[in-house]
């Protein structure tokens, strides 16, 4: 307070004292006697032991839990319920902690208080929160965190599809905890070893969608385990609801990483059979007299979609996300080594790329684009620069002029594989073809045509390592001449390489 304010307060007090003195004189009371009486009352109150007891009047029947700790049970003096309460002093946070023992029985109150003391004192010592949460409350906190990370740009957060997978995994964990009858138990009270069987439990459960057959993927089950443990470490441990020793123990399932070539790559003969079916039967008016003209135009769009996949190596999702303005001419057309005027550039923007990195794909699709635009024109649609190439043409749909979904294209693929007879042929060899198969087919053809693998990796938006791991057998076949060089000479001379080595020693 400033000196000026002090002077003002002193002046006010002097004025009040002056008025009080005048009033006392008018009533015949000596002002000195009055002030002495007030001072005596204040001293007596300060020295009265009952006054100090008033401070703790709420602690009735105070009983220590243990003789040597600052924890006790008591009844509240301001209620008549007779309920016992527990109090302990938190030395680290320097504040008292209170809990209702919910009983009027003193023996039961002491027993409950001793358990509370062990729990709370242990949490205080480990620096954990005293607030307890259930598994579903933890899942809710993690879900809120995941939602804050959703983005349309891969590798900048999590994309909506990834978030959906994580939500599914968290749902599995919630169901498992409920089956263990632990859903109402605080997470710090669940013994870590009780959850070790989660992976086995999940593998034994039937799949919940009719579109999947066979056993659950052990790799995906282990991914589920990873997500659960990540949730506990980044929320439960970091926010001090539990210690690292209380993180659930979950046994992962062993599985072999399959580095073999994908079995769903169509052979050159199969690819030729399929595209000829699309061209000469699927979209031909003479073979589809009862098919509406609108449907025939949609079939033409689908055919070009498949053939662009096979001639560009682009991922199906990426192709569906390409806009008209993102297909451009080659910068130095005069220097195009292939001298192929069909070549155009598909520019993949970051939020449309699986890797989160933009790239440019060079591929021969000029005439295919012209046929696509022509088909859409017959459906009454003219593409604007911001339009997706493969937009939904159904005017009465809420998805009108939005990009086609992969499910629509996938359903057409299944239907055409069946109507062409290829589905039955593939089934005999336990094989299947998906939209992604045409990306594999592109990689296979480029490699057997000796395209440098680093250029192919850049065009496809993947790594050289991945290409070598997935298609390494092709390089072995291409280098067969080098691998078997002079082997015919060795055979004619009946040279035994093992014996030669022994003699040399």
Approximately how much beta-strand content do the residues carry?
5-15%
- Architecture of one domain, CATH level 2? Orthogonal Bundle
Order of helices and strands: HHHEEEEHHHHHHHHEEEHHHHHHHHH
Major pleated sheet:
4 strands, antiparallel
Summing up helix and strand content along with how strands pair, one would put the structural category as alpha+beta
CATH topology name of one domain, in short, is: hpI Integrase, Chain A
For the biggest β-sheet, the strand order reads 1-2-3-4
The first-level CATH class name of one domain: Mainly Alpha
What would your notes on this structure say?
- With 505 residues, the protein is of the alpha+beta class.
- Among the domains are: 1-55; 135-246, no CATH class; 279-461, hpI Integrase, Chain A.
- It has 20 helices and 7 strands.
- The strands form 2 sheets. The protein has a 4-stranded antiparallel sheet, with helices on one face.
- The chain is elongated and about 125 Å long.
Concise overview:
It contains 20 helices and seven strands. With 505 residues, it is of the alpha+beta class.
């Amino acid at each position: 307070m400033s000196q000026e304010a002090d002077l003002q307060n002193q002046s006010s007090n002097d004025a009040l004292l002056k008025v009080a003195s005048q009033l006392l004189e008018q009533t015949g009371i000596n002002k000195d006697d009055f002030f002495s009486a007030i001072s005596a009352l204040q001293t007596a109150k300060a020295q009265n032991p009952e006054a100090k007891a008033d401070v703790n009047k709420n602690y009735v029947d105070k009983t220590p839990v243990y003789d040597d700790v600052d924890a006790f049970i008591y009844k509240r003096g301001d209620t008549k319920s007779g309920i016992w309460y527990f109090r302990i002093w938190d030395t680290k946070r320097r504040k008292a902690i209170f809990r209702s023992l919910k009983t009027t029985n003193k023996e039961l109150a002491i027993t409950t208080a001793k358990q509370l003391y062990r729990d709370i004192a242990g949490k205080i010592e480990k620096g954990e929160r005293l607030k307890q949460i259930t598994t579903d409350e933890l899942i809710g906190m993690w879900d809120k965190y995941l939602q804050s990370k959703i983005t349309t740009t891969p590798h900048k957060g999590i994309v909506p599809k990834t978030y959906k997978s994580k939500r599914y995994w968290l749902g599995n964990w919630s169901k498992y905890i409920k089956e263990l009858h632990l859903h109402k138990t605080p997470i710090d009270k669940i013994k870590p070893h009780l959850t070790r069987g989660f992976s086995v439990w999940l593998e034994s459960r039937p799949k919940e969608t009719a579109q999947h057959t066979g056993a659950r993927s052990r790799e995906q089950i282990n991914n589920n385990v990873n997500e659960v443990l990540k949730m506990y470490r980044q929320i439960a441990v970091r926010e001090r609801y539990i210690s690292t020793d209380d993180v659930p123990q979950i046994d992962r399932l062993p599985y072999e990483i399959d580095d073999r070539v994908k079995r769903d790559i169509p052979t050159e003969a199969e690819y030729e059979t399929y595209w000829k079916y699309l061209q000469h039967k699927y979209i031909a008016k003479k073979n589809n007299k009862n098919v509406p003209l609108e449907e025939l135009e949609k079939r033409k769009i689908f055919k070009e979609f498949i053939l662009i996949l096979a001639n560009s190596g682009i991922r199906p999702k990426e192709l569906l996300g390409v806009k008209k303005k993102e297909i451009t001419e080659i910068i130095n057309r005069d220097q195009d080594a292939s001298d192929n005027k069909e070549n155009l550039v598909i520019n993949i923007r970051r939020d449309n790329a699986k890797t989160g990195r933009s790239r440019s794909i060079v591929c021969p699709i000029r005439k295919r684009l012209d046929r696509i635009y022509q088909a859409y024109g017959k459906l009454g649609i003219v593409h604007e620069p911001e339009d997706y190439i493969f937009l939904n043409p159904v005017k009465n749909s809420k998805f009108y002029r939005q990009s086609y979904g992969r499910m629509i294209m996938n359903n057409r693929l299944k239907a055409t594989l069946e109507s062409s007879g290829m589905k039955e042929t593939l089934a005999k060899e336990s094989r299947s073809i998906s939209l992604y198969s045409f990306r594999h087919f592109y990689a296979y053809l480029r490699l057997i045509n000796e395209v440098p693998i680093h250029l192919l990796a850049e065009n496809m938006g993947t790594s050289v390592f991945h290409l070598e791991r997935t298609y390494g057998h092709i390089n072995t076949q291409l280098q067969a001449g080098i691998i078997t060089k002079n082997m015919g000479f060795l055979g004619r001379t009946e040279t035994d390489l093992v014996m030669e080595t022994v003699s040399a020693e």
